[in-house]
Amino acid sequence: MGNPFGGGNMGGMMKQAKKMYEAIQRVQDELAEARIEASSGGGMVKAIASGNGSLVELKIDPQVVDPEDVEMLQDLVTTAVREALTKAKETETARMQEITGGLNIPGMF
What we know:
Blueprint: H1 10-33, E1 35-40, E2 45-50, E3 55-60, H2 70-100
Antiparallel strand pairs: 1-2, 2-3
Helix pairs in contact: 1-2
């Protein structure tokens, strides 16, 4: 009866797991440096997120600042930020799936 845990393949599996972990770390570092931009109001509000989902910059064209219509500015900011963060998450998921082959590893991303 053979070893149900792969026996001699355990060393190979560990090497493969280590390579995957290193690749994931490399991609996470790259994502932290990546910049993903989204805008609203025809480019009047721009939100820039890192590839790992942190908002890093917000640009607001002074022309869109109207004290009589603060709600519009709030909506534009919310829309741009939401889109930038959504794009960042999609980018992160796609990059990680390249490494893991679609395998979901809880806690890794």
